[in-house]
Write a structure and sequence with these properties.
two-stranded antiparallel ribbon; single chain; Rossmann fold
Length: about 350
């Protein structure tokens, strides 16, 4: 059984006019699909897709009553097998959107454990979990797009870019972190046509234009910002490292200066994600995430979504969970269990075209 045979069978079902006859044919096709298709012999081999969506659609058809409605849904299945509909910013086939069940579309992200597939490792302190760049890259980039990560740390974003066939540039101020991340990136399998660069560099002074010219591209299609959460973890001795800022205003000035540097490098209409958390400072909750959000919005970026993310399996949480619970009860405060993912879009400067996606959510 292949896609051509499935389509031929669906067209044969469309010739029936009685609901009972359509149901009988649908049942036969469901039985054939269940018996002849398997994940190892999947005729639909695009990432995130599975032959089961055809069976799901056929079961829905069986539940409808009129022949007219059944034929409407049959034609929709045929369309999903013969036409591809994507947006300008990702490869998701909207004609088969039900297949992407693991892609999140709600603003609360809960993860129980780290994805340890591929060459990922949780060794680097302050690394975010691979599920975050995986979700963002699949939602906001296409195969072959260029992704910038100015705080690449342990290389998580770059590894996911390589796995998903996205070109990427990562900058990291710590030579030791670059050395460790380079080994993991090299160990990750990927398309030979994809570029994955991680460089020891200051993201505030790096010559982005020269790099892009060298690579023969004009800009980036997505930016991931996962800066240090102020001084919670010290990553280097460099004064341009945000983790060395003594005051929140200094931290925000650095973040704003970086946004100024990369704004023109991001293609119009494309997206930037800021992953950040809050912190306590001198006994008070400092809403660092929202301060940083405002700093980026000052540069003309349009806020599209605020995502709340929680991840249970962190080294700090596992080792000190009971201690922090006692401190919270004794001190009258609440323990951080969330971080933010702020999603921004760079607005286009040209007049909207009739083929442009809608601005509303």
């Amino acid at each position: 059984m292949d896609s051509a045979l499935i389509l031929k069978y669906l067209e044969k079902i469309l010739e029936k006019d009685e609901p009972s006859e359509i149901n009988q044919q649908v049942d036969e096709l469901i039985s054939i699909l269940k018996n002849t298709l398997s994940p190892e012999n999947d005729i639909f081999n695009e990432p995130g897709e599975n032959f089961l969506f055809v069976i799901d659609e056929l079961n829905n058809i069986r539940e409808t009553y009129s022949a007219e409605r059944k034929k409407y849904y049959l034609n929709r299945v045929i369309k999903s097998l013969t036409e591809v509909k994507t947006t300008y910013f990702n490869d998701i086939n909207l004609n088969r959107w039900k297949e992407y069940k693991d892609l999140k579309t709600e603003s609360l992200w809960l993860f129980s454990k780290r994805d340890r597939t591929g060459s990922h490792s949780g060794k680097y302190w302050g690394n975010f979990i691979p599920q975050i760049p995986n979700q963002l890259l699949r939602r906001y980039t296409k195969r072959g797009d260029w992704v910038l990560d100015p705080f690449s740390g342990g290389g998580t974003t770059l590894i996911e870019c390589k796995r998903l066939c996205r070109n990427s540039l990562g900058l990291e101020i710590s030579p030791e972190a670059v050395s460790e991340a380079s080994e993991k990136i090299l160990a990750q399998e990927g398309d030979s046509d994809i570029t994955t660069d991680i460089l020891t560099a200051n993201s505030l002074t790096f010559d982005y234009e020269a790099y892009l010219k060298k690579r023969g591209v004009t800009g980036f299609q997505f930016v991931v910002l996962h800066p240090p959460y102020w001084d919670i973890i010290k990553f280097s001795d460099d004064p341009d490292d945000p983790s060395n800022c003594t005051e929140p205003d200094d931290y925000l000035r650095l973040l704003g200066a970086l946004t100024d540097r990369i704004y023109d490098l991001l293609d119009e209409g494309r997206y930037l994600a800021l992953v950040i958390g809050d912190k306590y400072n001198k006994g008070e909750w400092t809403p660092l995430g929202f301060y940083a959000m405002q700093e980026i919005m000052k540069r003309g970026m349009k806020l599209k979504s605020v995502i709340i993310k929680n991840f249970e399996e962190t080294r700090g949480k596992m080792q000190q969970k009971e201690l922090w619970r006692y401190r919270a009860l004794a001190g009258g405060f609440y323990i951080f269990k969330h971080e933010y993912i702020f999603l921004f879009r760079k607005p286009p400067t040209r007049k909207p075209d009739k083929n442009d996606p809608p601005e509303t959510n």
